[in-house]
Amino acid sequence: MKFILYLIFGVSSAFYSHVSNAFISQTIQYVSQYQLGIDYSNSQDYVNLKYKTDAGSSVPATCTRDSADPTKKICSVGMVGGSSSGFGIFLQRAFKKQGFWYFDYDVGFGVRYLNGKTAKQDDALTGLPLKKASFELGAVLAKPYIQFGITPEKWPDILLSLGPAMQVAIGKVKINDRTESVVFGTSSYAGPMSLWRGFFEAEIVLKRFGDGAFSLFSSSDLTGQGEGTKVFNGDVDGMSDFRGAFSRNVGGGVFGFGLKLVTIWP
Prior knowledge:
11% helix
C-alpha cells in the first residue's frame, strides 16, 4: 500500500514539476519579447460623475430628465482626475516587420493613481444638492487591442491600435460630507460597436534600430461610457445612483504628439 502511495506521489510530483517548469518557461519566453521604453508626453485623466435627484420645477443645463422616471433628473459634473507632463517608463513588445502591410494584436496594461475634486466655483453645482465631490483611487487598466498600418522601407511606419478597455479601481469617494471606501470594475463595453471605442493609439515611427524605435504617438482610453459605472452606494442628500465614466488622453507638444523611445534592452 505504501509503495502505491509513494508511486502516486512521485508521478504527481513529476507531472506537477513538468507543468510548472513548462509554465515558467513559457512565461519567461513571453516576457522576453518586451523591451524597456521611455516616453515624454502630457496626460490628463478626467472623470464624469452622474447622479439622480428629484426633478423639481427646473432642469438646469447640466441635467436631463430621467426617461424611466419623470420624477427624477440625471445631473452630471466633470472632475480632473490627474495630469502630468514629463518622462515615463513602459514596456512594449519588440516589433517584427511583416512587409508593407502590418497586422498584429496584444494586450496593454496600465497602473494609475486618480485624485480629483469638484471646483469651488463650478456652475454644474449651482442650485443642486451636490455641493462637493472628490475621489482618491488606485486603478489597474487592461487594453486588449488590434494593431494595423503600413511599414514601408523608406517612409515612416504608421500604426493604429484600437480595442476595448477594462479598469479595476479601489479607494475612497466622497459625496458632500459622506465618504465611502469603494472597489469597482468598469469597462468600455456599451454594445457590440463599443468594442473599438475603448482604447485608441496612433503612432508614427520615425526610426528603427534593431528591436528599438523612436516615434511620435497619441493615445486615449475610456471606461464607463454610456450610463457609467456605479461608484458610490446609497443615497446622500436626496441624490442616488452615482455613476462615473473615466477617460485619459495622452499627447505632447510635437503637433499634439508625445515622444516615445523603445530601447534595445533587455
